[in-house]
Amino acid sequence: MKNSQPPAAPTGTNIVSLRQDRKPVVEFWYEFASTYSYLSAMRIETLASDYGVEIAWRPFLLGPIFKKQGWPTSPFNLYPAKGHYMWRDMERLCRQYGLPFTLPSPFPQDALLAARIAHAAQNQPWIGAFTRAVFIAEFGQGLNIADESLMAELLLEIGAPARTALSTAQSRENKISLRAAVTEAEKLGIFGAPSFVIPGGDLYWGDDRLEQALEAAGNLVETDA
Fold this sequence. Notes:
- By secondary structure, the chain is an alpha+beta fold.
- Helices cover 49% and strands 8% of the residues.
- It has a single domain, classed as Glutaredoxin (3-Layer(aba) Sandwich), CATH 3.40.30.10.
- A 4-stranded mixed sheet has the order 2-1-3-4, with helices on both faces.
- Helix 1 packs parallel to helix 10.
- It starts with 24 loop residues before the first strand and ends in a 7-residue tail after the last helix.
């Protein structure tokens, strides 16, 4: 009888075996204080649908990773020429993508509360809407995302249970889990945001690698597990 099973992926390649009834999942690692994460967060769901992949929302904190490199703040602050270029680049890209842009003050913003909320809600159906709302408030309107009342307002606007979300975000378990996510990011080789990890572990860094990461994930050969 002819074997109806598809051939196994050859060894020594980056081809990943996926169930035929599942789309490849791309992990989207983002930091709310990151300018380029803003650009990716506003585009990734639409693009993921175009490429036939799903998104795992992975909010995390870059601060602890930067500190291990000896950076007390964003490299865009430490290196003025780099910072000047980034702000001009953001103006151009936001205009290209049709996104509002306002330079927040201070920069980087204190993103801890937003990260805790998003981390606790990463599997909730409103995680994408919340993420976009925070980024718009921060980089589109220049608002202070460390403000708990602002977070509550954004949660209510997207139809999320604000009181429960805020309470869960500040729980001891969630705080420990977010710290563990930072450790996981380091183990994956992540050093900046946004970063994208596709099945098999390949890492793509930067908003300008978003489409490349999604395309690579969408092109993975699907075989029976």
